[in-house]
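Appendix B. Raw example, untouched.
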Amino acid sequence: MLNQNGQTIRVGAQVITWDGHVREQMPRILAFLHDEGYEGVEIGMRHFDLGRPNEYRELLARHELQLVAAHSGGTFWNKEQADAEMANIEQAIRFAASIGSRYFALSGNKQETVETMQVTAGAYNRIGGLCREAGLQLAYHNHNWEFAREGALFQSLLDHTDPDLVRLVPDIAWLHRAGLDPAQFLERHNQRIAYVHLKDTHADRFCELGQGSVNVDSVLARLSALEADWCVVEQDTTDTTPERSLAVSAEYLRNKGLLSCPKY
């Protein structure tokens, strides 16, 4: 499938499904994702040893995987805490750039308010600038709480951040849980979307693509109208094994023509 610019839309996977085992199992996890046909990977910063960038570059290259994004978060409205958070973020950005990441994904804080967002947005703009200097693009990852009270918090985020510095990585399951139509959201915010998180949910349980209540097909139908050239499969938790869940989602996307045949 091609995007709006005629580029092939590629598919990666978030390693969050392996939870606390990512660091010690990373070689095996990356080998599995490669064999399932995924072309990229998104990894939380907490899973990296920042003193070993060369090893991660070699590991990603060995398994022919693009690091789509390194994922982090923080609280930025309290100045004392924000200073420490910013120092960590700056280090994380340098590290992510050094191992070839395309994006730097950032999640917000559930305690954020419309008022504090005006302060936080300033920090996001600064982080976006640091990302640009390092050759990355900052992308904000949503949950459902940004859309409470008619989406006032999310609108504040949009209003107070530079759209060139702070892009979006819409998580379609969290949008669904917020009562929004993910496909309509993608259409509405097309020009600001960096890449997309493909995720499904059944009630309060995350599940494999096509197994829940998210209209994933309608989202996939919108992808060709976006500028985004990456989608990342994310399943926060699983009732089976991470391997089984990511394999089921891979097969779903293969049947839709978005993923190549497995390499085994």
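End of appendix B.
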